[in-house]
Amino acid sequence: MGKVKIGEIAKAHYRSGTYIGEVKEDRGDMYLIEVLAVHKHPLQGDLHNMYETKDVFFHERKALAFREKMNVKKPAVHPFNGEVPEYAASLEQAIATYRNKLNEEDSAYNRLALQTLDRLEQEVYFKIIKGS
User: Fold this and answer.
1) pTM
2) How many Å apart are CA 50 and CA 43, to the nearest integer?
3) CA distance 96 to 108
4) How many CA atoms lie within 13 A of 62 on its CB side?
5) What confidence score (pLDDT) does residue 2 get?
6) For the residues of the chain, what is the DSSP string, one character each?
7) pLDDT tens digit string along 66-125?
8) How many C-beta atoms surround the C-beta of residue 88 within 10 A?
9) pLDDT in tens, 11-62
10) Which residue from 93, 84, 110 is spatially nearest to 41, judged by alpha carbons?
11) What angle do CA 33, 71, 29 make, to 5 degrees?
């Protein structure tokens, strides 16, 4: 696990999602990172009560936008050496990967997470993915 430097491309885990971005600033125990691509879509639901759907607030989590900035704790930031994918394509791939995982098992949590993901894709991500 190497250290990253300002200006380098890194992979960073942030609020249940993982992103590829440029390290903009060193902020002590955190890095400021500008999002360039989505590696893993954020999880849906209550992270403190994973896989629960009753008596919990089922959170809808959107992926961070292209060039959105995030403060990430240094241990969650790692060097990224591959080709940085185009943002819309990476978002579409991250959604597909998450959807496939949710479709592996029929459960109340997976059904609700799929509904939430479908709504996000139709209402929020459609224009990004389709290039409108």
Assistant:
1) 0.90
2) 9
3) 19
4) 13
5) 57
6) -PPP-TT-EEEEEETTEEEEEEEEEEETTEEEEEEEEEEEPPPPS-GGGTT--SSS-----PPPPTT-EEEEEGGGEEE--SPPPPHHHHHHHHHHHHHHHHHTS--HHHHHHHHHHHHHIIIIIHHHHHT-
7) 999 999 999 999 999 999 999 999 999 999 999 999 999 999 999 999 999 999 999 999
8) 17
9) 999 999 999 999 999 999 999 999 999 999 999 987 777 766 777 678 889 9
10) 93
11) 105
Number of Cβ within a 10 Å radius of residue 30: 15
Q: What token pair was written down for 6? A: 């300002």
How far is 119 from 82, CA to CA, in rounded Å?
Answer: 31
